[in-house]
Amino acid sequence: MINLILFGPPGSGKGTQATKLVEKYELLHISTGDLFRYEMGNDTPLGKKAKEYISKGELVPDEVTIGMLVNKVIANPDVKGYIFDGYPRNIDQAEALDKILAEMGTEVSGLISLQVDDEEIVKRILNRGKTSGRSDDNDENIIRNRIEVYKGETRPVFDFYAPRDKAFEVDGIGSIEEIFDRLCARIDQF
Ligand code: ADP
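Above: inputs. Below: predicted complex with adenosine-5'-diphosphate.
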């Protein structure tokens, strides 16, 4: 199995690349952001809860996020592997992921972090906000808060996998195809 954590700050291109990687490697794409947006779109209790945090650019609490992720993995055991996009976003989430994969007799193959600088991120997200309909994409203060949360809570997940030689960086600046090729070159070494 290939179990890839596609990592990096908001707006670093994880979703775009995940869509292409899924096709090439026949993996199941699990995006916690997409799962939350689905719940919010249907105005479910989980969606309402998530919205309180997402609209401020904060992380949705682990008790909501981890359960949702684990359910999604358990519901899809017969796949060639998973791409985790937007998860794990803190160490507790990483530990929960390791645990559920271990229970399934597998493990994280590697984490790849897309490197994109702050100003490029703000530019990309504001641009995406024009068409995404995402309330968290339109306000520069919310975007900057998401970047701060990334640096404070999420970036340590990289250091969590690094000692096991499972954390890698890939330059996230360039054309979609160039970045895709860089990712594939790394994945092919897993
Ligand atoms: P981004 O483009 O910022 O990476 P996502 O679509 O991955 O956006 O996530 C949007 C929002 O959903 C995040 O800012 C956060 O509030 C919430 N979210 C997504 N994944 C998680 C997670 N693993 N833990 C907590 N909150 C999450």
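The beta strands are 2-7, 28-31, 81-85, 110-115, 167-171.
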